[in-house]
Amino acid sequence: MQPIEAWIHANVAPERVDSAHLRYDAMNHQAPQDLSGVYRAYDPDRIYDWVDLTLIFAYLNALPTNGRILDIGTGDGWPALPLAPYVREVIGVDLSSARLEVAQENLARFGYTNVTFTIASGEDLPFPSNSFDGVVVGTAIEQMNDPRRCIAEIYRVLVPGGTLIATFEHLAAELSEKVSEQVEFFKCGNGFLYRYTVKEALPPREAEYQLFIHTTNDYSGLLNDKAVSFPSRPGFVRRAGEPGERALTDDIREAYGLSFLKEITGMIDRGQYFELDHFDLLTLKEALEGGGFSEVSICGRITHAAHRFFIDLNERGILKDLCPYFEEICSALATLWPLIPPQDEPVLFTRSRRKK
Length: 356
Prior knowledge:
Elements: H1 3-11, E1 15-16, H2 19-22, H3 47-62, E2 68-72, H4 80-83, E3 89-94, H5 97-110, E4 115-119, E5 132-138, H6 147-157, E6 158-169, H7 171-174, E7 179-188, E8 191-200, E9 205-213, H8 220-229, E10 246-247, H9 250-256, H10 258-263, E11 268-277, H11 281-290, E12 293-300, H12 303-315, H13 326-334, E13 347-354
Parallel strand pairs: 1-11, 2-3, 2-5, 3-4, 5-6
Antiparallel strand pairs: 6-13, 7-8, 7-10, 8-9, 9-11, 12-13
Helix pairs in contact: 3-12, 3-13
């Protein structure tokens, strides 16, 4: 436990909640707003659409079924929506109502009739046993309070011989340091909100804290100045008006770190947090096999290799001539998914089967 979170537990006694409500309900968009297959149709004139479609075909190739599919932690509708044209039925579940509202909007845009979204936890799936030919999960199992319970639920709802395809964050490869800390501070309603996020490589874990802060006459100027001065992060932010989390570099630590929290202790009304245990290569295999799965394969995600491949084709001036064969080429490249070594990949791609 890092000093800031140890101080929060000792001085605020935050309430433990799940990541769906603390993190994912607090997003206007979980996925990039231009994500192909979710917010718009695939376009072969865009290089990264080749990469995105190759990953979808990797899911399809690894399943392998075009039957009834369950997508756990679907978020804004990925991979449920891009899988829809290739399978009989997809049901997407997520515990965040905000995410499913966006997923429904995206579904209406595409007009698929074989996709359904519903609120549910991966730890308590509202489906009978032996209900699905395949289950897909995009970095959501490790977001559960009890990921092993989620794995057991997946095993239960799969038909005998059914396949689980799941990606997992691989913190040992994702993090450049042993510990990654980020903070965010901004005005929220009549008060202020302080966010702190930490990821650790060994053992792999993640935690996020939110502190709700009121102001007083003596400190209103200080807090407003702090909020205005917080450096905005280019790119993704959760909601309009929020600056986005920044790495706890020395200057950010000095201005918004532990000394700042100590100074405003009396103005912290309450706190919330979630804490997640992530997997490494060994514990992931143990968890899947311990959940009853066989034929467990763990490799890297094909995304980075596909990106290099299509960038090279584009630089050679070849890619534009291949646009008529967009799906065929992505599908062929996707068959290489088992060949991507997992050790240095920040996201792991796994396939497991329920025993027949």
